[in-house]
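User: I'll paste a sequence; please echo it back and then give the predicted structure.

Assistant: Echoing your sequence first, then the prediction.
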Amino acid sequence: MLKGEGGAKWQAAIVPITNPFRKFVKTVVMGTTAIDKEMYSYFVQLTDVEKKSVLQMVKGLLHEEHSDERITIEQYNREIAEDEAEIERGEGISHEDVVRISEGWLHGR
């Protein structure tokens, strides 16, 4: 049983042995699972503030990938103001914390 968006449960389809793509499908599913597990193992070690930062980064990557539009100077200024407000509320990550986190990545902590 697998969980989808909103916690919906569904069963994975079983690929028949005679299917020539069986090995390919198994490899893709296992590869994705391994990546998901590795990402999750790192993600759960982050503080709530760090998790918010990572989530915003991922959302930004997805938005950039699917957006061919240029933003206006007004939108740019709004985004800067929103980011500055987050920092003022203490929701940002300091440079020292970024250095500490990245050193952990380099040294396997």
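Residues 103 and 109 are 8 Å apart (CA to CA). The beta strands are 2-3, 9-10.
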